[in-house]
């Protein structure tokens, strides 16, 4: 008799989800699904809203990456207005977006993943958490909090507020950077760099401990997608879409992000509210690809900043030119953070950054617009249609977690096949299935988080749906 | 645990954090209460914040506060009902789930990393709806004022003590 093991919900990811693992008659894993059980209705509630409200509204989708939605949304409205932000406005947008990358990457690595890495995947959950990290390695925990705080301060100081900032507007930004504020941000750069480099050193020193996980945590061949600049370096804000295969060969390059619909398809599966995107030329489900920090490093020639490029060289020496294991998202996330900090410094020292022309003004000049940028978790696409009065009639968001959905499912299946034996629920299996999902740091932030609502529950279900066993923590 | 753990910073400010997702109907009641309290003379000098969720860096600011008041939707409460309870430092394991830290985790981090954790008061408002939407339900909207008054009462009592 086949059985289904359900892990519901997954802890330490954003939002509501569960995992089901399908066993065959012999107790072997035959299939696995990562389900998102919360409906994301933001596209619906935007209909009828004035399009100029969209950036501020979209920023409220998520408390972790509001700037990502703000940037992509503003770019979509730029497109509708047929304007280019001023150079100073674009650079200030870049800085806020990079501050977002720093703080979100820090949350993922230090807060969510470092407990697994520090204590091991089988350690008692009572200590395998951020408070446990604070006890065992206070410098690591302080570095994580310091990076979070610095990234958040950049967002707050430039964007107006830490959560749901509004400083980025269609046409650019609605503020002018002062010398005092520029210098205040720059003053934090040395410590941010030092904290990130300490974490990289710590990670590399302990990498050998996780060789087995690296070989089985979503280690498979797939394409990768990310934005690159004119030189082929990582671009977190604009540039062109590049897609490479598992060997690093270009599947596509210099794609105008505004044409993404020609290349990216969206599939809907009955078991999840999360859409699954795919590379159209390869069809569904074969057109699997990954986005995010690992993809950014895999598609680009270089990071484009000296310290990050030095670490990228070591990264590629250790894991290959195109890293296939999703476990290496952790390592890539740290290098991505280093890259973001260096870029912030570089932009703040630019000759035009204190310029007073920070915003282009225009009205509704098109009925359709697309904005694309790199969010912490990967490429983010906002696509709007408006009527002649500028009211939104249709909106579609293609989010990083959707790009990674097929890859996450494959990763869960791989880990389950390695660690699930028989029909019993064991902590070691749970820990690893959860951990492989956390590599992608999925954000399903449509969720509520009302106090007391979530806990980890694991159910073992028979084919007819009745619960054979259940554990919780 | 650090040997020099202190009960917050007695001379520090009161920190009030209303948190929740304002695009999920009544989950946004925490930020709504924070907005109501902004400029309230009863909380003069307090640091009043609105947040989507609790995140680890709050531990740093909490360690420098004399009191931390958290306001959130609480699914254990009946819709519109407002409850208050004190969270004792060290009462939680601080286990993290999703991208935010639970209140016990904030306290634990403040103690472990900065040697001080303030008393924490949790004010919960029972939600009627957590569906996608920007408006509070009628019953929860009517509770915002009561919750704000309760925060003010807690802060005034703390300052008198």
Topology (SSEs and partners):
The complex is a heterodimer of chains A (473) and B (161).
Chain A: E1 3-8, E2 17-23, E3 29-36, H1 42-45, H2 54-58, H3 66-81, H4 87-119, H5 130-136, H6 138-159, E4 168-169, E5 172-173, H7 179-187, H8 189-206, H9 211-216, E6 223-228, E7 240-244, E8 250-255, E9 264-267, E10 276-279, E11 289-290, H10 293-299, H11 306-319, H12 329-348, E12 368-375, E13 378-386, E14 392-398, H13 400-403, H14 405-419, H15 427-440, E15 457-461, E16 467-472
Parallel strand pairs in A: 6-11
Antiparallel strand pairs in A: 1-2, 1-15, 2-3, 4-5, 6-7, 7-8, 9-10, 12-13, 13-14, 15-16
Chain B: E1 14-19, H1 29-37, E2 47-51, H2 58-63, E3 67-73, E4 82-87, H3 103-114, E5 120-125, H4 138-160
Parallel strand pairs in B: 1-2, 1-3, 3-5
Antiparallel strand pairs in B: 4-5
Provide an overview of this structure.
The complex is a heterodimer of chains A (473) and B (161). Chain A is α+β, with helices and mostly antiparallel strands. Helix content of chain A is 41%, strand content 18%. Chain A contains 15 helices and 16 strands. In chain A, the strands form five sheets. A five-stranded antiparallel β-sheet of chain A has the order 3-2-1-15-16, with helices on one face. In chain A, strand 15 and strand 16 form a beta hairpin. The two termini of chain A are 28 Å apart. Chain B has a single domain, classed as HybD-like (Rossmann fold), CATH 3.40.50. In chain B, strands 2-1-3-5-4 form a five-stranded mixed β-sheet. At the A-B interface, helix 1, helix 4, helix 5 and helix 6 of A face helix 3 of B.
Element pattern of chain B in H and E:
EHEHEEHEH
What would CATH call the class of the domain at 84-219 and 325-361 in chain A? Answer: Mainly Alpha
Query: Hey, roughly how much beta strand do the residues of chain B contain?
Result: 15-25%
Report the sheet-strand fraction of chain A: 15-25%
The share of residues in helices of chain A is: 40-55%
Here the CATH topology of chain B equals Rossmann fold
Radius of gyration over C-alpha positions of chain B, nearest whole angstrom = 15 Å
Number of helices of chain A: 15
CATH superfamily of the domain at 84-219 and 325-361 in chain A: Cytochrome-c3 Hydrogenase, chain B
CATH class of chain B: Alpha Beta
Helix content of chain B: 25-40%
What is the residue-averaged pLDDT of chain A? 86
User: What is the general shape of chain B?
Assistant: globular
How would you write the strand order of the largest sheet of chain A?
3-2-1-15-16
List the quaternary state of the chains.
Answer: heterodimer
- Largest sheet, strands/sense/barrel of chain A: 5 strands, antiparallel
Distance between the termini of chain B: 27 Å
Rg of chain A, rounded, reads: 22 Å
Shape of chain A: globular
Largest interface: A-B, 53 and 43 residues
Which CATH architecture of the domain at 84-219 and 325-361 in chain A would you pick? Orthogonal Bundle
